[in-house]
User: Fold this.
Amino acid sequence: MIATQATETRHWSFHTDLEGLGWLTINTPNSPVNTLSREAIMELETLVARFEDLANTRELIGVVLLSGKDSGFIAGADISEFDAMSDFSVLPEALKRTHALFQRIENLKIPIVAGIHGFCLGGGLELALACHYRIAVNDDKTRIGFPEVKLGIFPGFGGTGRSIRQAGPVDAMGIMLTGRMLKAGAARGMNLVDKLVRHRDMLRWEGRKAVLQKRKSSRAPLSKRVMAMGPLRGYVSTKMREEASKKARPEHYPAPFALIDLFEEHGNDWQAMSRGEIDGFVPLMGNETATNLRRVFFLSEGLKKQGAKGAKFARVHVIGAGVMGGDIAAWCALRGMSVTLQDLDMARITPALERGKKLFRKRLKKKREVDAAMLRLEADPEGKGVSRADVIIEAVVENLEIKRKIFGGLEDQLKPGAILATNTSSIELERIAEGLKDPARLIGLHFFNPVAQLPLVEVIRSTFNSDAEIGKGAAFALAIGKSPVVVKSAPGFLVNRVLMPYMLGAVERVERGESKELLDAAAVAFGMPMGPIELMDTVGLDVGKSVATELGHSVPEGSKFAALVAGGKLGRKSGEGFYKWVDGKAQKGPPPERSDLAALGRELVKPLVDTTEIVVAEGVVASADLADIGVIMGTGFAPFLGGPMRARQNGKA
Ligand SMILES: NC(=O)c1ccc[n+]([C@@H]2O[C@H](COP(=O)([O-])OP(=O)(O)OC[C@H]3O[C@@H](n4cnc5c(N)ncnc54)[C@H](O)[C@@H]3O)[C@@H](O)[C@H]2O)c1
Assistant:
């Protein structure tokens, strides 16, 4: 057989080799990741027509589909195109065309095999599922899944039906409803992938073998498929609806509920389910939730583009091994940094090391990884790590004199270029920096409690700082997997400043006799992850009171709030605050009936939104966009509304 001439389109390259094997490679131009844009799909149509012709004339024995990018296979559809679409009425036709294309791929008479490394998500996984056989690299980087629900939609290129066909209804719906990404081994376990290889280089060899041996993926066994049959499907759907309702409300996040409806209707027939996708998909796409979630996605991706390029961080020194310092140190060690942790004596460091061990055990699977992380986290009561550290983070008690003294003693020991940072919540950065020989060095890195759970780090800029220090601070936050938002040094920065009037407003209503359960339920009905009273209990009433005072709010003597603090009833951590707490759960009575819960929630959230507007007007954050993503990440504010500024603009808050 003669090798055919190579074909190059903007996204694809294709050639056949001497064996008659076709090699198809995707490489999206000007993008770090491959995406399936309209253009990529139309080019693929032409190529598939060619495969059909070549298969008929027996000039092609099979095709191996690979990615030309290091980042991975295909990260999904090109979602920027959704925003560019002025009119969603063209969507059904576009989807039908892609469905038809994927069906033609599946109908090819010759084997077509997908070789997967890195990200294989959304539309990329749907394309892979239309191939006859899937091989994936079994390493730490491979990620397989359907993140669509996180964007307010569900798979729309036939992936709902095809994933059910491969994995069975329970597993397939599970990954579509959560948007969870699977590692290669888990995807193999679910039968979404047919074979694992160790290295990317092996994809070609195994791909060739799969074509020559005409390997075909097997479908989910009857034992799994049965869950979509007869009355069982109704039962499974009800269970799934119950689970989904625990995490989201259909009026806020309609996609998972629409997907369950689709399953309930067609789940026993994968082709009918795939066809039904189109009718369900279009209204979701037109919904404000999807528009707002895409915005949140782009804003959070935008945060990753900040920061000084090329900055490297290997060693971190943390001073203060309390609630925050201990957890910051453990987090940095978890993320691969060598960390020295300093406090007044060993007795104050040991509990932090113990907490670190718990975190490592939870997040790292293998014992040797846990051991390695423990070795990276070192007690350092004498502060020997200072002179070697690339980053120094101070998290001692909130006291200006103590902080000043610490920084004064550090300055001469620092490595040139090392970041010097404080985690202060309320002390003006300028006042701490004043005592330094070079006050421009000190920045704020404001973490949130619990450090392991909250993704935001406010990078605080004082009047002394230049872009260089701030850029490095942002780069460090990214290096430890956090999302940096740059905020001017102003009382409460962004997150505490907007949260406080919201929480205190609710506390005041409780003082006046309103039901705390009702207020909390109302905020959740509006779209907050937790009500303001439960949040105050979680933050700690002592911390809440001191931040409130710091921000100029008054906590009147004789108030219930003041009495609770005085009585050591500090909330969750002491077992009682506004609520009693058992096993980490607030003990709530049933809230009184109220028909307009969400309207009450909106009333409660108003001070938060008002304050965000003020913060933006004052220039504390550089833009309304940054305020939105910062408040979403720092407070959990209703992502489906796109953030407080966007919600106000849309008349929703
Ligand atoms: N707790 C929160 O939710 C939170 C959130 C963000 C920021 N912060 C800020 O983080 C900092 C620490 O807060 P925390 O809640 O972890 O306090 P904490 O009281 O739990 O811990 C402070 C630690 O600093 C140690 N310390 C005191 N003086 C020291 C010195 N001279 N040298 C070394 N260590 C010393 C103490 O022994 C203690 O272990 C504060 O500035 C606070 O404003 C707290």
